[in-house]
Amino acid sequence: MVLLRFYDPPTSSFIELNKRNHNKNIKHEWVNFEQVSEYFPNAVIASEDQQFPSHHGFDLTQIKEVLENRKNGISRGASTITQQTVKNLFLWPGRSYLRKGLEAWLVAWMELIIPKKRILELYINFAQFGKSVFGVGAASQYYFGIPAHQLSAEQSALIAASLPTPSRSNPAKPSAYLTKRAAYIMDQMPRVGGRRMIREL
């Protein structure tokens, strides 16, 4: 965890799991935070974890809402960006108590050791944005044929909108659902702080 403050990891557990499943089409390219459009981190926060700048790895309000919803038969997640970063880098798919326990332990250490801006940099470089597309560098090239620093607000929102179902989403040819979700994200982006928030992380 200390090394992750300074060292850019070349791969993640999810990428390696894809390789073991004989996926030879993996696309991944590390991009430094300063080389990413300022719209994109903001879009990810608006989409996935609007309390990211202020919480300590766990969004207790969201967890409470999820537990209440489950009592009513509604299933949805409450994973923060930090939790997803830990999962992507170190763990595996699934919902076992063992994986959740390891995740919670690693999240606590990540929040203690690694600055928020660095956690966000790790996340946007290893989040899955397509069946074989990992990270914003590969996603911007694959879907729009441009480097990550050229992504517009709309393109950033479309890629971020794919996060719940990346293997079934195509930001370059968005479905009606993806277009609607991207519009919601664009509406939320100024509300979570916009470029000022990114600079202050």
UniProtKB/TrEMBL annotation:
Keywords: Cell inner membrane, Cell membrane, Cell shape, Cell wall biogenesis/degradation, Glycosyltransferase, Membrane, Peptidoglycan synthesis, Transferase, Transmembrane, Transmembrane helix
Species for this entry: Arenicella xantha
TM ranges: none
Pfam families, alphabetized: Transgly
InterPro entries (alphabetical): Glyco_trans_51, Lysozyme-like_dom_sf, PBP_transglycosylase, Pep_trsgly
GO cellular component: membrane; peptidoglycan-based cell wall
Protein's GO biological process: cell wall organization; peptidoglycan biosynthetic process; regulation of cell shape
Every Glycosyl transferase family domain range: 24-189
Record's protein name: Monofunctional biosynthetic peptidoglycan transglycosylase
Transmembrane found in the keyword field: yes
Record-level Gene Ontology MF annotations: pentosyltransferase activity
Gene3D superfamilies in the record: Biosynthetic peptidoglycan transglycosylase-like
Source taxon at top rank: Bacteria
